[in-house]
Amino acid sequence: MTVSTARTHKLPRFFAALGQLNATTWAGLVIVAVLVAAAVFAPQLAPYAPAKQNIIDQLAPPGGDYLLGADQYGRDTLSRILFGARYSLVIGFFAVLVAMVLGTIIGMIAGFKGGRTDVILMQIMDVVLAFPSLILGIALVALMGATITNIVAAIAFTSIPAFSRVARSAVITQRDREYVQACRAMGFSPTRILLRHILPAILPEIMVIASLWMANAVRTEASLAFIGLGIAPPAPTWGGMVRDGFENILSSPYPALFPSLAILLLVLAFNLIGDGLRDLIDPRMRDAS
């Protein structure tokens, strides 16, 4: 087996096996695709501007002019959910992207170098893991301010250890393989070995964690917005909508119910996708299912 075929054989097999995904995984992909499309085309799909108020129609029930009802300010719930999807998806995507890049780099360095470097880097990750992710995210956003950039940074920081641990264990598995030894014998630099030979082999495992942590990022963003540390009003974030709806939940549960269902649907979809990708790269899990 040559070095090039050894380092690239997993990716074609991984993508070729997408046809083996089960029905629930495809359901997750469809849900995410629909929500992404709804977020992109929100200005065309929303019947009203998300911040438009009509005090006469406050807490209007679903139906009529308001398909999903209106909140306490008479704002259309459906329009706000469509525009709120933008914040959840953008914050979740960039938070996971940053965490994936930084965590994978840290994990690859720790796993490939070993020794003291491995110990120091993993102990730093253990310190971060010692704090509950939501509590740490609350502390960071409270210190830095509730802007989109700061929320992305806070969620990404709490997610880095998950990626670094997965990347480290995957690199340790790969670093003693024949193709890596061949690369060393040919005089390739550690950077080239990691980026061009080991990274393609471990990328499927990283993508599985990314899909699962997208769900966590969406949930964390909604939690921060619910406690008042999300994007400032009148931006229509799902967590903020749930918080506002709780003020009148006994008389009108719909303003809190529908954004809660949107959060549930998106988190469920990413979990379904992550489970399907995990089964795809792990034959034992696929056989068990």
UniProtKB/TrEMBL annotation:
Keywords: Cell membrane, Membrane, Peptide transport, Protein transport, Transmembrane, Transmembrane helix, Transport. It is found in: Cell membrane. The chain crosses the membrane at residues 21-42, 87-112, 124-145, 151-172, 193-215, 256-277. Residues 85-274 form the ABC transmembrane type-1 domain. Belongs to the binding-protein-dependent transport system permease family. It is a multi-pass membrane protein. CDD domains: TM_PBP2. PROSITE patterns: ABC_TM1. Signal peptide: none annotated. This is Peptide/nickel transport system permease protein. Gene3D superfamilies: MetI-like (1.10.3720.10). Its main location: membrane. Pfam families: BPD_transp_1, OppC_N.
